[in-house]
Amino acid sequence: GAPGLGGPHPLVFLTLILLATSLAQVTPGARYRQFLTRHVDFPKTSTTNDRIYCNLLMQRRGMTRPICKPTNTFIHTPADQVQAICRHAGRCHRQNLCDSNAAFRLTTCRVAPGSHPGRCFYRGRVQTRQIRVACNRLLPIHFDRVL
Amino acid sequence: MGARFIPSFCLRRLPCFWNRKRDLASASKMELNIQCEELSASRWTELISSMKTSKTVRLDDCSLSASSCKDIGSVLSTNQTLSELTLSNNELGDSGVELLCKGLMTPSCRLQKLWLQNCNLTDACCKNLSSVLSTKQSLTELHLGDNKLGTSGVKVLCQGLMDPNCKLEKLQLEYCELTPDNCEMLSSALRTKSSLKALNISNNKLGDAAVKLLCQGLMDPNCNLQSLHLENCHITAASCGDLGTVLSMKPSLIELSVGENKIGDPGVALLCQGLLNPNCKIEKLWLWECGLTPASCKDLSHVLSTKESLTEVSLIGNELRDAGMELLCQGLKDPKAKLQALWIRECGLTAACCKSVRSVLGTNQTLRELHMGGNKIGDAGVEMICEGILNPNCNLRSLWLGNSELSAACCRSLATVISTKQCLTELDLSNNSLADDGMKKLCEALKHPNCKLQQLVLYDIYWSSEMDDELSVLEESIPGLKIIS
């Protein structure tokens, strides 16, 4: 660089880049990764039936401690196709909510009434539907609903 | 790919940086507890040696197989202190269980509790398990759910159960493909096994005739059963008379679940007759998804206001509606009502019944847990509930309002409750569009010194990245508070 010319000192840029990277640890990257962990399973993990699928996946993806997450939908599509909803493959409206153009294969898991923390049992329901997600900087970070 | 997508966060020990607060259970040397982890050969060797001195071992969903059972079998034959073993969700197969049983049968083995749920077992392994039952006096609990044992398998198992050496206290056979043919032997077991305290045969196609047969066994003077779970057993009102009779004659039966059986209003009426008998000392009653309507609520209300032993009731998934809820509330206001936990999720309730709920909260001092999620009560409903909670009489500790069509508008009332009601330690607001505005109000309340909330559940609520950061910082700054999202 050439200090003395007009413009910010290179060190300022360096500081900004470092700041941005550290902020990124708590912003979109982390939320997107959590979205993937909670909502994307491709290819669909093979199990005996959808109920066992839900019991295993909800546990494996960390949604049974410290309490049983009441409902959760898994999408059986590659992550990049889900990501695309936030760009060209979806219709976006208010509050960053985007509806997918395509229908996706889904398994929705709902906690069974007799469940308690540490003993989470689920019911599974398979369907092929369009979905609504919330996007932040072109990445899905929140699963809103099955349409 | 597929099977183990990012399993690392499941491990209690590895850091998972998007979880705000890692619940690191203090790993006691006596307790080995591993869930969903792929175990390398070297790790397995390490674990085997820890198992040799452990009191409890849990290896749930760890890709164990029959070969692992050989090693575990040798641990069982040498470790005299091992009292609990959980190997659920591993494809052990019948051959694996055979190897385990070899270890279990050694005289020095003192195992008390064994969990083998969803281990790909069939009737073939029941002979081995039966031998264990008829030999191991130390074994008090056996959980075999989600294994296709079938009629023949369970018959063989019952043979072992009947042995005088067997001192089993808890038997769980959910989703084991039991049939009505199994109930004669189970009935005999109930008649003979005075040690049996809990029986769970939910999710097996039994039907009314089979359940009536079971009731005969339950009525035997030798039977001391405390807990009976018959969920989704294809029961109708036809067997509720017999169940009611059991309730009226057996003070030992303190926990009954008939959830997910279409017993309907007629069935509940029959059960209530038994429940009202002074001999009945029922404490927990689960009637979720039983096809009940507001018509059931008169009898239920009467039970609530009479049965002082009754501490927990679940009515999840019955179309009770506001009319039904209002009737229940009348019962709950009675000074004799000692209910501590009420589950009325997904009961078709609206804001209209919340006035009665407010009234209950303002009078009833024993209610500690209220699960009301999945009802369209909205902001108006929640505001009334909050008013009730603020009453000094109310001792509510745990409030669940997930998926209740709430918005930012009700957060002012919720904030007041959070910052005032010191007894409230648990609050669930999942699946509500609280938005940043609502969340901000809640955050302010959390900072209040009077807020004693330990667990705030906020699953599936969309907020901005800024709010996300704020919540992280807030949670770090308040010791004792866990925000689950």
UniProtKB/TrEMBL annotation, chain A:
Residues spanning the signal sequence: 1-24
GO cellular component, as recorded: extracellular region
Keywords on record: Disulfide bond, Endonuclease, Hydrolase, Nuclease, Secreted, Signal
GO terms for MF: endonuclease activity; hydrolase activity; nucleic acid binding; RNA nuclease activity
Organism this protein belongs to: Pelusios castaneus
SUPFAM superfamilies: RNase A-like (SSF54076)
One Gene Ontology biological process: defense response to Gram-positive bacterium
Protein location: Secreted
Protein name: Ribonuclease A-domain domain-containing protein
Family: Belongs to the pancreatic ribonuclease family.
Domain Ribonuclease A-domain: 28-147
InterPro entries named in the record: RNaseA, RNaseA-like_dom_sf, RNaseA_AS, RNaseA_domain
UniProtKB/TrEMBL annotation, chain B:
Top-level taxon in the UniProt lineage: Eukaryota
Record keywords, A-Z: Acetylation, Cytoplasm, Leucine-rich repeat, Nucleus, Phosphoprotein, Repeat
Range of residues in the leader sequence: none
Pfam families per UniProt: LRR_6, LRR_RI_capping
Primary location group: cytoplasm
Subcellular location: Cytoplasm; Nucleus
Keyword Zinc among record annotations: no
GO cellular component, one term: nucleus
Known role: Ribonuclease inhibitor which inhibits RNASE1, RNASE2 and angiogenin (ANG). May play a role in redox homeostasis. Required to inhibit the cytotoxic tRNA ribonuclease activity of ANG in the cytoplasm in absence of stress. Relocates to the nucleus in response to stress, relieving inhibition of ANG in the cytoplasm, and inhibiting the angiogenic activity of ANG in the nucleus.
Oligomer and partners: Forms high-affinity heterodimers with RNASE1, ANG and RNASE2.
Protein name (record): Ribonuclease inhibitor
